[in-house]
Amino acid sequence: MTRASFEERGAEAPTEATAREVRAYFERVRSLVESKLDELVPAATAEPASVHAAIRWSLFAPAKRLRPALVFAAGEAFGASAESLLSVACAFELIHTYSLVHDDLPAMDDDELRRGRPTCHVRFGEAAAILAGDALQALAFQAVAEDETLDPTLRVRLVSDLARAAGTPEGMVAGQAHDLEAEAREGVGGEELELIHRRKTGALIAAAARAGALVAGASDVELEAVARYALELGLLFQITDDLLDVTASAADLGKTPGKDARARKATYPALYGLEAARERARRVYEEACAALDSIERPTPVLRAVARLVLERRG
Fold first, then answer.
1. Is the separation of the CB atoms in 232 and 288 below 8 Å?
2. Are 165 and 206 in contact (CB under 8 A)?
3. Can you tell me the distance from the alpha carbon of 101 to that of 78, in angstroms, rounded to the nearest whole number?
4. Of the candidates 242, 230, 246, 247, which has an alpha carbon nearest to the alpha carbon of residue 285?
5. 114-157: per-residue pLDDT in tens?
6. What crossing angle do the helices spanning 300-310 and 19-40 adopt, rounded to 10°?
7. pLDDT band for position 15 (cuts 50, 70, 90)
8. 234 to 101, 134, 180, 185: CA distances (angstroms)
9. For the chain, how are helix, strand and coil distributed in percent, rounded to 5?
10. Which terminus of the chain has fewer Cβ atoms in its 10 Å neighbourhood, N or C?
């Protein structure tokens, strides 16, 4: 659902898209992104076939494509075209998938199920999984750097932002390291837990929304508002992920439930209990939506994405 299609419903844009509209939006983005990813990634039979088969196994498993959807939702809110957003959206999915492949490895979270199928290292072996993750990460930066629909200066800025969000000291890798260090450690408090979540999950989600707005030429004030929204959205996603690890089934999650407790990870339910964690999720959702109030652009999809994350069941 594009900005224009919302405006066609009346002179004043709705504050939030309906559940049906946001599902249709996600389907549209998924179709565009997966078609482009198919072009970007070598065929499974291309040499080295072991790596390319592992990449495609992980990348084209059933997935929500949340980060690409955020690139599109933020970009289209400020008037960007789908063509200008597509490679950037793919880059975020490539980085995210690489992180999942490596996160599932025995040295990390040691999981055997991801996106409803055996994890990459279970299917192809650890060496192929490591190399597949490495290749996915590199391809993400290549996709942005070689996107000739974007100005070269903008490409450099996008690559820089993506690298910062994916790495250290305040990005995803830093969050993953802190998460591992906090396992089975006594005394992990709320402030440290929030820091882990904001880096491990929130940094890349925030960068995705910001990237879409950057492509669209949003002002610095607008970029700041989008970033605040997406930082809260990233924290919301991880809180609901913590909750689902306790309450959902493997069929709902597409991954193994209960692993956080078995690994003695620091989580919101473990620290606060289920009801308090749910209340914290509600407050973070409200903070995310409030961050959009200063933007004089149609943001119904961004608000609906936040509600979708709040109410997700898998």
1. yes
2. yes
3. 33
4. 230
5. 998 999 999 999 999 999 999 999 999 999 999 999 999 999 99
6. 90
7. low
8. 20, 24, 19, 24
9. 70, 0, 30
10. C
Mean predicted confidence (pLDDT) in 225-233: 96
For residues 12-31, give the mean pLDDT: 82
Q: HSE-up of 259 (CA within 13 Å, CB side)?
A: 17
Dist CA 116 CA 218 (whole Å): 37
CB-neighbour burial class of residue 134 (10 A; exposed 0-12, middle 13-18, buried 19+): middle
Closest to 76 (Cα-Cα) out of 307, 304, 297: 297
Cβ neighbors of 162 (< 8 A, separation 6 or more) are 91, 92, 95, 140, 141, 144, 207, 211
Q: How far apart are alpha carbons 53 and 34 in whole angstroms? A: 16
